[in-house]
Specification:
The protein is of the alpha+beta class and 684 residues long. It contains 26 helices and 24 strands. It folds into five domains: 4-64, Helix hairpin bin (Helix Hairpins), CATH 1.10.287.610; 88-322, 2-Layer Sandwich (D-amino Acid Aminotransferase, Chain A, domain 1), CATH 3.30.470; 327-416, Beta Barrel (OB fold (Dihydrolipoamide Acetyltransferase, E2P)); 445-450 and 459-603, DNA polymerase, domain 1, CATH 1.10.150; 612-683, BRCT domain (Rossmann fold). The strands form six sheets. Strands 14, 15, 16, 17, 18, 19 and 20 form a seven-stranded antiparallel sheet that branches. The chain binds 2-(butylsulfanyl)adenosine (IVH).
Length: 684
């Protein structure tokens, strides 16, 4: 038998652990680090092992425990669990019909003041009755048919947001709290991601996640599911001294007892304020952290609720006002692929039109081959589609029972699309990648915009002014198909574009012209070859010395370059094997894009190997970036200040103190021509 001080100690530990629990799971504001929580928890567990009589049902150690059940025992609800009437008028003004009915039934005249309502969210989970006796959670049951439900006490105990003991000094003798067990969207996504990784079954949607978990016969499985809870009402109540007089105040009181209540609720006067609530929530529906299927309006005053009473299990004082469903059934009529900006072929299900999430949906993304395999979506299948707000509609699951006979074949992107549907280049799926990609690169129109932006970017060809909006216009009007076309643009064409004045068009033309003098490294980088970043481009330029040497390199030769492995080598080989890409490269060179080349390996160390250069002032054609890249490509280093160790200073106009210092120290000063001549000398 435990001594009194042990009893006190255990009680204090329980209270402290529950306090941290509440802070963490209900208030979302942890009060102690996890390690401290674990320490407290283990201390209590150890005490309970030593004195088993301490392991009362309200002990936080009892959240997980108990073996699997064969079936849930049935329980009769002390007070029936009612359902809510759904307002048939689904427009925002549906609230007016409800208000009119309530006023009539309460016998109110037009001149009487507005009825006070409590507006709240309609959570999409599983209804639960929690029975607290003298503040301790003793039983939990599902709604069942409203009269009789299933006892799911063990599973409900695993929901950390549900207090095992109510807070406060004098809890009612009996308090039944009713509410919804639900799963947050982020918890749902995280759980599924983990399951996918582990190769385990995933949950279909958050609602099924919540309902399925609570109706799990094995509490250990339920305990793995991240569930949450919101209270929205009461069942049997006995011995509650100062029971509140309104529904809103009841929820406030529940909060003070430590029960989670959703903060999205509002006392509304009359129909207009209900409509405002409806519209406000509708606008934010998709950014809520959990799914809702509508809002609920309740007469706020309990005495008025009692006066209104019930009709066949539905209270006259409450109504559910639903939003458009976010999931519907439809049929996959075809599976097609779309080419994205990065060349990934995204499978898309063409659906028999279905009204879901407030719009008619005819397409749903299937993401990639792995996703198709996981869901096993086939043409002809009946599927559940989901559209939550502006999110792209998705196929949630296939209704296997409705698959046609004989079963249609599995869908395989590589098989159905050996070549890109946009440009005809062949497609590949690289080892370890989820996406099937078009190898068309610069040639593929779907990839043009992205490729052009990259081509013009500062570290690539550095064409200032060739940004997003402009590239969109150029591609959409068919003025630019590949980067080579950029060099054919003229003033009249550019000045004719939206938001392009004569002056900015002229500036852009200048920038395009200046970009022609570049380096091999920049040029390679600008081509936008997959897996070839700036550093790899520099290494390749240094190693091969000329573009022709690079273009003709075998995978083995490529892998001789520092940091080039099989993946990068394959990307390069594939890129240069595509005739379209070679054509673009040739046209760029014809347009005048050039760089100092060298003969290759011998000069790979570069004419500037071991040399330090300083750049100062503005050069006539080269940008600072370009000059720096050229120096680095030739093996040199660029320093920020001049010293005795500086080998060359490359000076343009408005060169200031650095030029003076170079002259004072006797360091060789070059202008742009001299600099280009120095670089060109590396070939010979
Ligand atoms: S009140 C007397 N309030 O909707 C009214 N129910 O048919 C009893 N639900 O499955 C219910 N959110 O679980 C109420 N804020 C809310 C609710 C809500 C969701 C569910 C409830 C039940 C169904 C009502």
């Amino acid at each position: 038998m435990a001594a009194p001080e042990i009893l006190t100690r255990a009680a204090a530990l329980r209270r402290e652990i529950e306090r941290h629990n509440h802070a963490y799971y209900v208030l979302d504001a942890p009060t102690v680090p996890d390690a401290e929580y674990d320490r407290l928890f283990r201390t209590l567990q150890a005490l309970e092992v030593e004195y088993p009589e301490l392991a009362t049902p309200d002990s936080p150690t009892q959240r997980v425990g108990g073996g699997p059940l064969d079936a849930f025992p049935k329980v009769r609800h002390a007070v029936p669990m009612l359902s809510i009437r759904t307002e048939t008028d689904t427009t925002a003004t549906g609230a007016r019909a409800f208000d009119a009915r309530v006023r009539k039934e309460l016998g109110l005249a037009d001149a009487d003041p507005p009825v006070e309502y409590h507006a709240e969210l309609k959570f999409d989970g599983l209804a639960i009755n929690l029975r607290y006796e003298h503040g301790v959670l003793v039983a939990a049951a599902t709604r069942g048919d409203g009269e009789t439900g299933e006892a799911v006490t063990q599973n409900v105990r695993t929901v950390h947001a549900i207090p095992l003991r109510l807070a406060g000094e004098r809890p009612p003798a009996v308090l039944e709290v009713r509410g919804e067990v639900y799963m947050r969207r982020d918890d749902f996504e995280r759980y599924n991601a983990r399951q996918r990784e582990a190769g385990g079954p995933t949950l279909v949607n958050p609602r099924n996640g919540a309902a399925g978990s609570i109706r799990q016969l094995d509490p250990a499985v339920a305990a793995q599911r991240p569930l949450s809870f919101f209270a929205y009402g009461l069942g049997e109540v006995a011995g509650w001294d100062d029971a509140p007089a309104t529904h809103g105040a009841t929820l406030d009181a529940l909060m003070r007892l430590g029960v989670p209540v959703c903060a999205e609720r509002r006392v509304c006067r009359g129909a207009d304020e209900l409509i405002a609530f409806h519209d406000d929530v509708a606008a934010r529906r998709d950014s809520l952290p959990f799914d809702i299927d509508g809002v609920v309006y309740k007469v706020n005053r309990i005495d008025q609720q009692q006066a209104l009473g019930f009709v066949t299990r539905e209270p006259r004082w409450a109504v559910a006002h639903k939003y458009p469903a976010q999931e519907e059934l439809t049929v996959v009529e075809a599976i097609e692929v779309q080419v994205g900006r990065t060349g990934a072929l995204t499978p898309v299900a063409r659906l028999a039109p279905v009204f879901v999430g407030g719009v008619t949906v005819t397409n749903a993304t299937l993401h990639n081959q792995d996703e198709i395999d996981r869901k096993d979506v086939r043409v002809g299948d009946t599927v559940i589609v989901r559209r939550a707000g502006d999110v792209i509609p998705e196929v949630v699951t296939v209704v296997i029972d409705r698959r046609p006979h004989p079963a249609p074949p599995r869908f395989d992107i590589l098989q159905s699309h050996p070549v890109c549907p946009v440009c005809g280049s062949h497609v590949v799926r690289l080892e370890g990648e989820a996406a099937v990609r078009c190898t068309g690169g610069l040639y593929c129109p779907a990839q043009r915009k992205q490729a052009l932006l990259h081509f013009a970017s500062r570290r690539a060809m550095d064409i200032e002014g060739l940004g997003d909006k402009l590239v969109d216009q150029l591609v959409e009007r068919g003025l630019v198909a590949t980067p080579a076309d950029v060099y054919r643009l003229d003033l009249a064409t550019l000045a004719g574009l939206e938001r392009m004045a004569e002056k900015s068009a002229a500036n852009l033309l200048e920038a395009i012209k200046a970009s022609k003098a570049t380096t091999l490294a920049r040029f390679i980088f600008a081509l936008g070859i997959r897996n070839v970043g700036e550093t790899t481009a520099k290494d390749l330029a240094r190693h091969f010395g000329s573009l022709d040497a690079l273009t003709g390199a075998t995978p083995e030769a490529l892998m001789a370059v520092r940091d080039v492995g099989p993946i990068v080598a394959e990307s390069l080989v594939q890129f240069f094997a595509e005739p379209h890409n070679l054509e673009v490269v040739a046209r760029l060179r014809q347009a005048g894009v050039h760089w100092p080349e060298n003969a290759g390996q011998r000069a790979a160390a570069g004419i500037l190997a071991g040399r330090t250069l300083v750049l100062t002032g503005t050069l006539p054609t080269l940008t600072r970036e370009a000059a720096k890249a050229m120096i680095e490509a030739a093996g040199g280093k660029v320093a920020g200040s001049v010293s005795k160790k500086t080998d060359y200073v490359v000076a343009g106009t408005e060169a200031g103190s650095k030029l003076a210092k170079a002259q004072a120290l006797g360091v060789t000063v070059l202008d742009e021509d001299g600099f280009m001549a120095l670089l060109a000398s590396q070939g010979g």
